[in-house]
# Entry
Amino acid sequence: MSHHPYRTFRTTVARIIALSPHFTRITLQGDDLEHFGTDGLDQRIKLIIPFADGSITDVGQFDESQSMTEWYRRWRALPDEQRNPIRTYTIRSPRPQAREIDVDFVLHGTEGPASAWATAARVGDPLFVVGPDSRSEEQGGGIEWRPGAATSVLIAGDETATPAICSIVESLPADAVGEVCIEVPTEADALAISAPSGVNVRWLARGSGAHGVRLSAAVHEWGLRRAAAHRDAAVSEAALAEPEGDEILWEVPDAVDGGEYAWLAGEAGTITALRRHLVRDLGIDRRSVAFMGYWREGRAEAS
Ligand SMILES: Cc1cc2nc3c(=O)[nH]c(=O)nc-3n(C[C@H](O)[C@H](O)[C@H](O)COP(=O)(O)OP(=O)(O)OC[C@H]3O[C@@H](n4cnc5c(N)ncnc54)[C@H](O)[C@@H]3O)c2cc1C
# Structure
């Protein structure tokens, strides 16, 4: 039997660890996870949040003969009260042999169903995870980190991108060179990660400041240092040519053939502005900049 690239895994909460004031790691277990397939990095997954009684409306999510596109269409057609919320997260650590995965949740209150679920989660609670199936011949979907042969990297994001950034940084080769800027709510939210010696990791505590301000300042500061080092570099027309408008929230180049690579993820407004700064102000080739709006201030995720 051939397998679709994505399937829905039935899981339950095995462990809950408070990593910091705003990060909670939830370990999910389930026999199905034996077939969870991914290389980690910024692998995205979808979480189907159960109703209060732990149930979900069956639209064919567990029928392995159906693709996600098929059941998703039926899910969208459901009336609101029957439609379980679906939200996008990152796999922090896949351990298929132990039939476990870790997901690091940002606790941002109880307004959103995913954050509310994580805040109230107890060992044994069910959660449904849509992720890659190791038995499928189509692999590699949902990973946007594609640095190719880049010789230096800029990685910037907020707390929602922290799980992806931690996995990416841990995967860097020992001779990697670059800068990592991560904005988190408080100083106590800076997590322990090991990075190669040539990679400078900066945790930026927001405190009472507005979202994105410290991240933007850190990237601008990096840009000044870079500009001083690249004073004579020529900027090609292809690098500067880009579609106008702010509606693009997600663009990921396939690969770069050397030089710089930037990966930006987090609140859409902040990330879009940072990407514009890199491309328009600093003249960095847009084909070397991956940027991803992970969420948008004031707006629930449109599933
Ligand atoms: C590829 C990808 C990977 C992601 N990985 C992770 C991950 O590993 N861990 C993680 O925690 N998040 C991650 N996110 C972000 C997460 O999907 C959003 O934060 C999502 O909105 C959370 O859903 P919710 O039900 O809690 O809130 P929603 O119902 O979507 O939103 C409710 C309200 O909360 C606001 N809101 C949403 N997120 C935040 C936040 N972080 N801080 C403050 N206000 C917020 C919204 O603007 C809205 O006003 C990822 C997103 C993407 C696209």
In short: The mean pLDDT is 92. The chain has two domains: 6-132, 152-295.
